[in-house]
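Backbone description:
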Amino acid sequence: MATSSVSKGCFVFKPDFKKRKISVPIEEYFNKGKNESEDSKLRFETYQLIWQQMKYETEQLQEELNKNLFDSLIKFLQKCHSGFQNNSRDWGYQIKLREIPTAALILGVNVTDHDLTFRSLTETLQNNVTPYIVSLQARDCPDMKHFLQKMFSQLVDCCVDVESKEEEKDVQKKTHCSMDSLSSWYINVTQKTDPGKPGKKRNSSQCQPPPVVLILKDLESFTTKALQDFIIISSQHLHEFPLILIFGIATSPVIIHRLLPHAVSSLLCIEIFQSLSCKQHLTTVLDKLLLTTQFPFKLSEKVLQILTNIFLCYDFSIQNFIKGLQLSLLEHFYSQPLSVLCCNLSEAKRRITFLSDNQCENIRRLPSFRRYVEKQAAEKQVALLTNEKFLKEETQSLLENLHVYHTNYFLVLRCLHQFTSSLPKYPLGRQIRELYCTCLEKNVWDSEEYVSALQLLRMLAKDELMTILQKCFDILKSSSEKQLGGTAKRIEELLAQFQSPDAEVKEEEDASGSQSKGLQKTDLYHLQKSLLEMRELRRSGKKQTKFEILREKVVSFIDNLVRLIKTRRCQLVLPSLPTA
């Protein structure tokens, strides 16, 4: 076809549907643009293994966090259902004849996470309460007509029997959807089938049929008129169509009264259920995935700060945070040839023995390895740079040190958090993630916030110190490391000294002095004044009580512990292996 002149007309080229894109395995992308591609498949498999483990942990965590909320909802729904059963014979006896049981579920502003929560909730309710679950969104229900059509359609889908489902769909097409038709359908279906297992015949002697649970996922987005009309009409059919509402609320329960006038809201028997806040959820996710030695992959300070800033300043979405973590993990295994060693310790040591000459050269090119070599003796420097066998043995030893360091690091981090998380103004942060970011960024003891925290620790009372020390002891006693085992023993000795009668007397003497004002809750001005008074007293050479001496020992103990862990940091090496 000649297309030399566009003035002659428009020319249409139909696409060739026979040509289809050939799907390339995702592991092939690890080879693209990389000279060191000999272990790309192994790196991809390691990435998949770590990510599947992380994904499983997040799913288990989500179930644990939702368990209390879902259990409360199930009890509420079962109580409402028993109310329908007990009063079904004499509705004139009911005081709340037209009140629809309603659960106001406060989920927070992280709207992108709500779908996962509602899917889990629907599955839980179907297994424990009723098979008749309907989930609606505002965009599908602009008016009453669409409201009832969507509801009828999902109720029909609850029927397991394919033949009855097709019959009901035909009836739905021929019949105008209304609450009367919904009630008739419900009575017809529940009389024919077992309430717990749709599709099976039920006897008349069995218990009353299960209720219908309607979940409105985004209550704030529903139109006022459609919502009001539905509630008014449903309340009039409650005796024949036992309905229970679940409102998904992102903001506040006040939205119910803003959308519904008193005449309509009075038709609802509302009970409020509060889910775990997204900030607490984030802290739990970080604790399970990053502040642990279970996973060798760790985020750098900048990456972690970016992900948390997006979470706190943009969407509050746990799912998006986890996707960002997955992207960081994928980028790490794609861009770092030595990420093949980012696995559990025993497997990493095994893989080191099979490293090729090119991979050994990659280790030697690491800036951290060069700094390590420069600190060694001349003979060892030559061996590390020329002898592959010696290099592999040294790398195995350094990876063991790195594993021990991470174990000790997270234990001490938790202990330091116990000491600083309850201080006034939270100088090192209220959440452990804030303290973790500070420790990743720099030596924490060089910061003014750390010095301020130590000064505040010197003002704590005996019961506060004992509570903190007991928590630290519980954290450290589970460790199998020898160094931290001795630390736990030292904390136990400090607790015993605090519990001695002599310490109690001296603590009372100290409390009666002028410094007792600093132990009370006060404003910033009086706090600074108390600190200055304490400094002047120390300068004047006033003799300290035994309680003051013991308290100073505790502060020096945690300070030395933090500095000791940092100075015992693994001298190598390969920080780019476990860190994104």
User: Anything to note?
Assistant: The first helix runs from residue 40 to 86.
